[in-house]
Structure to design on (366 residues):
């Protein structure tokens, strides 16, 4: 039996474990991919702690790119050696959301190497829950996208996060010449959104984060767009109780901002950034904040604001990213700030969760 190294979640543990497991055997409709790069997302450990993984043990990692190692007997369109990236969304492919570019709303939605999000039966997740933080991953052939020659495997593995940013920007429904606030701007989703903002009619960016130094480094990702930063650590003491972030954003944009992309997982930033929106503004939330939104519905009504939540991208979003990368109009290489060998996956996850050093995107190279 051929064995491979894999980073797994085990029953009864909230830690990541490096184990030797059998190399998967592809079924008739499967493709076996030799993983060259796998993305890291610290949120998977939080989901593990919350019990969102229905099958344990399971190999983690919903982002992966590599080369085709073997194809099932019923697979056409892929051959050994092809360069590919994995689209991790497991859905029924037949419901109304799946047929209208809203696959993240499918009742069966789950993610390879990640979690299941609803209470409906998830037959595909049952079969394909093992992910890409391993030397090989087995996936259904329809979840693979060819990787353009000019796109490296590391960026290929992070197409999913770039596509999440595309989805957030689409949800914002920005007018041409928009002023856009991006919160948690120094993290994975924040940096992806900054990099993609010029493709969505944004004329001015306001980046919110904890550290002025880290925000300064992100400014150069904006492609020359006028960009201002708000460091939470430099706001007056007591800003959280005194609406200090709203006041600062209103100083920057007295007429209000057109939209807020909020990637902060908790705390008052979401509400205070939303309160700085112009009439007709949109708050797009992707941070998973468990707290209430303390702005009365009456205010949302009178100012014609919109709140849009979205938890993932769609295949269309990912293919749009691949098109931008393939044509060379988007260069995302600089977003990959950290690379780790698979044997150091535990250290990599700890670094992502600790954030004591600035990490934009991180990948594991088996």
């Amino acid at each position: 039996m051929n064995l491979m190294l894999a980073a797994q979640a085990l029953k009864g543990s909230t830690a990541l474990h490096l184990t030797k497991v059998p190399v998967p055997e592809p079924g008739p409709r499967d493709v076996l991919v030799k993983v060259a790069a796998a993305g890291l997302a610290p949120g998977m450990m939080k989901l593990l702690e919350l019990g969102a993984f229905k099958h344990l043990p399971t190999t983690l990692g919903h982002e992966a790119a590599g080369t085709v190692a073997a194809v099932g007997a019923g697979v056409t369109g892929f051959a050994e050696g092809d360069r590919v990236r994995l689209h991790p969304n497991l859905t029924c492919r037949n419901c109304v959301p799946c047929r209208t570019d809203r696959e993240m709303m499918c009742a069966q939605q789950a993610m390879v190497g990640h979690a299941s999000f609803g209470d409906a039966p998830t037959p595909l997740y049952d079969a394909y829950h093992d992910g890409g933080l391993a030397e090989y991953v087995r996936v259904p052939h329809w979840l693979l996208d060819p990787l353009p020659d000019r796109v490296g495997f590391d960026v290929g593995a992070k197409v999913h996060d770039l596509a999440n940013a595309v989805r957030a920007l689409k949800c914002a429904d920005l007018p041409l010449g928009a002023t856009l606030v991006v919160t948690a701007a120094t993290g994975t989703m924040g940096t992806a959104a900054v990099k993609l903002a010029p493709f969505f009619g944004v004329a001015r960016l306001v980046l919110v984060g904890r550290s002025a130094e880290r925000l300064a480094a992100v400014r150069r990702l904006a492609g020359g767009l006028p960009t201002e930063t708000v460091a939470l650590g430099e706001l007056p003491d007591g800003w959280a109780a005194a609406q200090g972030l709203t006041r600062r954003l209103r100083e920057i944009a007295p007429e209000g901002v057109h939209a807020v992309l909020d990637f902060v997982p908790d705390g008052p930033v979401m509400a205070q950034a939303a309160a700085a929106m112009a009439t007709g503004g949109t708050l797009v939330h992707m941070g998973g904040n468990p707290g209430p939104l303390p702005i009365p519905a009456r205010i949302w009504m009178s100012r014609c604001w919109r709140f849009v939540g979205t938890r993932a991208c769609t295949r269309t979003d990912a293919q749009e990213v691949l098109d931008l990368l393939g044509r060379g109009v988007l260069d995302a290489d600089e977003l990959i700030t950290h690379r780790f060998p698979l044997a150091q996956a535990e250290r990599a996850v700890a670094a992502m969760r600790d954030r004591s050093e600035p990490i934009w995107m991180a990948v594991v190279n088996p």
User: Anything to note?
Assistant: The chain has twelve helices and 18 strands. The chain has two domains: 3-158+332-365, 162-309. The first helix runs from residue 43 to 49.
